[in-house]
Amino acid sequence: MKPTKNRFFCAECGRTKMVFETEKKAANFIKFNSAAIEEQTGYSPKRTYFCIACNGWHVTHLHDFFHVQSKTEEVLYLFYKEKEQKTLAKTERKLLRKKNSAKKYETKKLI
Ligand SMILES: [Zn+2]
């Protein structure tokens, strides 16, 4: 019998999918349900893969062609890039403030 409580919307692929906690559970699902699914739909899940958006395992009938950067990976990359730029800008402002306060101190010393 197909599990029904593990269906969630996957932001990565934009539709509802089954999510398994472990690879073994996903593989077991394939092992025990692929024949029945193939009978109903004409194709059956062939492999498991980890989804970083769901933080869980999905099953698919598609072959693993090659690794393409996922939407979630792209968003994470842009997030960390932005974070790095902000940190860099913050450090530059801090150095500038230090430099300016040192100048003020020297100016006061002269007066
Ligand atoms: Zn997912």
Describe this structure in words.
By secondary structure, the chain is of the alpha+beta class. The protein is built from 2 helices and 4 strands. The protein has 2 domains: 7-60, no CATH class; 69-111. The strands form 2 sheets. It has a two-stranded antiparallel sheet. Strands 3-4 form a two-stranded antiparallel sheet. Strand 3 and strand 4 form a beta hairpin. The longest helix is centred in the C-terminal third of the chain and has 40 residues, at 71-110. The radius of gyration is 26 Å and the shape is rod-shaped. The protein starts with 6 loop residues before the first strand and ends with a helix. The mean pLDDT is 89. It binds zinc ion. Zinc ion (ZN) binds at residues 10, 12, 17, 51, 53-54, 58.
Summarize this structure briefly.
The protein is of the alpha+beta class and 111 residues long. Helices cover 53% and strands 16% of the residues.
Write the layout of secondary structure elements.
Elements: E1 7-10, E2 15-18, H1 23-41, E3 47-51, E4 56-60, H2 71-110
The structure holds zinc ion.
Task: Tag the structure with descriptive keywords.
111 residues, alpha+beta, 2 domains, two-stranded antiparallel ribbon, two-stranded antiparallel sheet, 2 helices, binds zinc ion
What does the overall shape look like? rod-shaped
Structural domains: how many: 2
Main beta sheet: strand number and arrangement?
2 strands, antiparallel
If helices are DSSP runs of H or I spanning 4 or more residues, what is the number of helices? 2
Q: Indicate the low-confidence ranges by residue numbers.
A: none
Heterogens: zinc ion
State the share of residues found in helices, binned by percent: 40-55%
User: What is the mean predicted local confidence, pLDDT?
Assistant: 89
The number of E-state strands comes to 4
Quaternary assembly: single chain
The rounded distance between the terminal residues' Cα atoms is 87 Å
Order of helices and strands: EEHEEH
Strand proportion: 15-25%
Strand order of the largest sheet: 1-2
Query: Rg, please?
Result: 26 Å
Q: Structural class from helices and strands?
A: alpha+beta
